Amino acid sequence: MLETVFNFLDLFVDKFLNQSILRFNKLGSAMITGGENSVNLGDKMGYQGGYHNHTPTGIKIFAPEDIESLLEFSIYQGSGGHNSVFLGMIGSDVCSSCPGGYKYYHYLIRYTGDYAPLNQLVNYPSWDIQVLVDTYRERHKNIKGDSEHYDYQLETLSNKGLEKLFFDTIKDMGLENKISLQRVDESGTAPNTTYTVQNITLNADNKLVAIPCP
Amino acid sequence: MLGVIVSFISCKAQTFPLNTLMDDIPQNAYVKDFNNELRPYIGIYKAVHDGNEITLYITKEENKLTKRANKQFYRDALVVKYIVKNSAGVVLQDTYNFNNPNIRFYSIGTTPLKNRVDFIYSGTNCNVGWGDIYLSKINATQISWDYRPDSMLTDKCPPGTDINIYLPVVDNLIFTKQ
User: Fold this and answer.
1) Contact indicator for A175, A181 with CB cutoff of 8 Å
2) B165: chain A residues, CB-CB within 8 Å
3) Contact assignment for B23 to A142 by CB distance below 8 Å
4) Which of A151, A161, A160, A18 has the alpha carbon at shortest distance from A97?
5) What is the per-residue pLDDT across A48-67, written as a single tens digit (0 to 9) for each?
6) pTM
7) Distance between CA A175 and CA A182 in Å, rounded?
8) What are the residues facing A36 on neighbouring strands?
9) Distance (Å) of CA A17 to CA A36, A89, A93, B123
10) Domains of chain A: which residue ranges?
């Protein structure tokens, strides 16, 4: 599975990062090129997930609508296949001290819950998406004021800040422990880039923990 | 009588300063602009960018109902309506004369160190261009505009919807008070 993701990613990262045009690639389909700041995924039926970029001015973690899309991809896979679906997101910030001049943000999410609740989550969600997105934006502002979660050099949320925003958001959606988050750390520069995958979780004290994948 | 007074006092909403963290605001509390930080931004402002004329109508709404996941409260906020015209004077987007409840543009607090008010913008139709907008006071007649749009998936957007972002996606654009 991970190998598939990385093959897929090679196609995506080098060509399309650092651009304001939004793109989405579903597994097994051609690249979908959207406009500035938006892209239409089209039909989700039968696709095991996909990757998209977040534009340079945007927040480099999954937004509520992204999480809704993951749930839709998951339900369309049917019972048994619903936990194998993933949604990937990559983004970058200009960073003079980083290899290649950019800091990359690269995350994957999966639905890990049962199949049965997906019908309600997709078709009759308990949340108002407009309220959720405003909550997400205000959380973003609040977390920026917290030195533990802010990158002062890049003047943006650090990885920890982004991950806190994600876990706060899935809590707002009632999806705690039903969505897994992985961060892909990169080292080296293309074409000799190596990837390390970290499982990001919250411990009993509600602190973020990163555990490398075996 | 005493019981009525006690009941009245205990039912009155708790009041908090403008920049109280969202998680610290109780249900139905009132977040008040005690220091009148929002007042200097009220007015009509204009700028021209890429040939388009942008007019902002900034008003202050006290006790604005604010809905968040799992709670609601009230807050003093600046609310922005706008008209964007192209160089021929054709209106491209008008939320001032034509209210669209799905297009929300309002403040959620200030950043005093940067002399700035921080806004949430829902984006245009189908939430395309949703993001943060910052307005900074330069002097009595000028404010600076920064717009940081996010990404949006539009597969639920009805075909043919105008999803062009007409507000200027730019930093440090100067608006002048009219």
Assistant:
1) no
2) 36-37
3) yes
4) A151
5) 888 888 888 899 999 999 99
6) 0.91
7) 16
8) A21
9) 13, 11, 10, 23
10) 2-212
